[in-house]
Amino acid sequence: MQLRFAVRGAVWVFVYLLFILAPLFMLLTGSSPPTRNFWGEFAVAIGYSGLAMMGLQFGLTARFRYVTEPWGEDVIYHFHRQISLVALALVILHPIILVALRPQRLGMLIFYQASWRARFGALSTYSLVALIVMALWRTKLKIRYETWHLSHIALAVVAIAAGLLHMVGFGRYLVDPWKRALWIGLTIFWIGLLLYVRIVKPLFMLRRSYLVAEVRKERGDTCTLVMQPDGHPGFRFNPGQFAWLTLWGSPFRITGHPFSFSSSAAAADGRVTMSIRSLGDFTGAIHRTPVGQRVYLDGPYGAFTIGAPADMHVLIAGGVGVTPMMSMIRTLAERGDKRPVILLYGSKDWESITFREDLETLEARLNLTVVHVLQNPPTGWTGETGYIDAEMFKRHLPPPYADHEYFICGPDVMMDAIEKALKELGVPLSKYHSERYSFV
Ligand SMILES: Cc1cc2nc3c(=O)[nH]c(=O)nc-3n(C[C@H](O)[C@H](O)[C@H](O)COP(=O)(O)OP(=O)(O)OC[C@H]3O[C@@H](n4cnc5c(N)ncnc54)[C@H](O)[C@@H]3O)c2cc1C
Predict the structure, then answer these.
(1) Which of 40, 68, 163, 373 could tie 51 with a disulfide, CB 3.0–4.6 Å?
(2) Which atom of ligand 1 is nearest to the CA of 258?
(3) Using only C-alpha atoms, what is the Rg of the chain?
């Protein structure tokens, strides 16, 4: 990680901790209600922390480029998922401890007989449980992504709003005006985040739309959308980054899908391309996009981008994971950058290799070697077959392996296997960069 990113990352970690811990420190100061035993106070404290963590989740998924840049969007989403489990544990432990201390409190969790302030607490907890269950087992429960996404936002809003009302209802710890001011401030901040994501950002995207200039069929059930900015210069991105594409309807609808750019980042006309493989209902309909269709892009995002020019770049792609690599290679070609690059590219068979011909042309222009790895090779194939592993690296890469920069994008199983192989070869973590298409 570059120094400026390391410093910025450290600052954001500090800000995050401040937001989470401020309500706890606040409890320790000012006037307090008559002290309960330690566990009673502890239960209240973790309830406050759980609520603060839940509220800040809006910030983690608000896609602030300046905040996510040091880590990359996938790491932030991973953190969002893990920290929500911690918040859930705190929120659930809060009533468990209180009931364990005084079993009569069990009635507070039974909706129809509880007081309104206890009902809000129960509603908040149940909403959070439903939210986490749906997030963890969305595919197993066969919930459509779009349905899940909408219910995820709705449940989060209910969990937080009900949690706040529960806290206000039991206002024993909020007697000092500045304690109330802190929670009012936090609430305004969370509402602000929600409004920013759902209203301000879409308004901005509305003013910077793109028009589809071409829809190009590629090998491997893939279509390339060429998009040109409509009345604005477009945005700058780094090769390997991605954006959220809203194809049908306005950016206010929660229908954006993430796709890497496959075009050069050095293009002067602001045009960008995304190459999309048919894998589901949205991606399967891409080929029907009419030329002239208005689309919206939210981006660029991601920390998956080329590194120092002196190092050999080893690009490892599986299937449609080749799209960010294409952007990197095309950018190097446009910039006349002759750094050594090797692309290890896994595909089903010879006919379905997306960008096969483009890569042949680029190989002639760059210091680029393309190694195709086929799962179903044609008869007479003498190249690589099967899965990319440590032995394959040894056959194609010059040692010392730890000196190269590795970029990996493909199916999860492939990425896990490659990360293991690189570890076997003694490649330090700082030398490999990955983009997981499964992070959402
Ligand atoms: C950073 C990143 C870059 C990507 N780049 C490319 C690329 O260059 N080319 C490419 O072909 N694919 C890319 N993908 C994958 C692509 O986003 C999914 O294949 C696509 O969204 C699936 O949509 P679907 O409705 O056709 O499939 P479905 O069958 O409906 O969904 C399959 C899975 O895709 C994910 N998904 C569905 N809808 C969304 C959505 N609105 N937002 C986020 N995820 C969703 C969900 O995990 C879902 O379970 C990328 C993914 C990520 C995270």
Answers:
(1) 163
(2) 17
(3) 25
**What is the pTM assigned to this prediction?**
0.88
Q: What is the pLDDT of residues 391-422, one digit of tens each?
A: 899 999 998 999 999 999 999 999 999 999 99
Question: Which residue's CA is the closest to the ligand 1 atom numbered 43?
Answer: 257
Q: How far apart are CA 297 and CA 225, in angstroms?
A: 12
Residue nearest ligand 1's atom 31 by CA: 280
- Find out whether the beta carbon of 61 lies less than 6 Å from any atom of ligand 1: no
CA of 395 to the centre of ligand 1 (A): 33
- Strand ranges (E), 261-400: 272-277, 294-301, 313-318, 341-347, 368-374, 384-385
CA 325 to mean position of chain CA atoms: 19
**Residue 41 DSSP code:** H
Taking phi over 0 as left and psi of -120 to 50 as alpha, with beta for the rest, 380 belongs to left
Q: Where is average pLDDT lowest: 27-31, 191-195, 198-202, 390-394?
A: 27-31
Q: Which amino acid is at 357?
A: E
Q: Nearest C-alpha to atom 29 of ligand 1 is from which residue?
A: 280
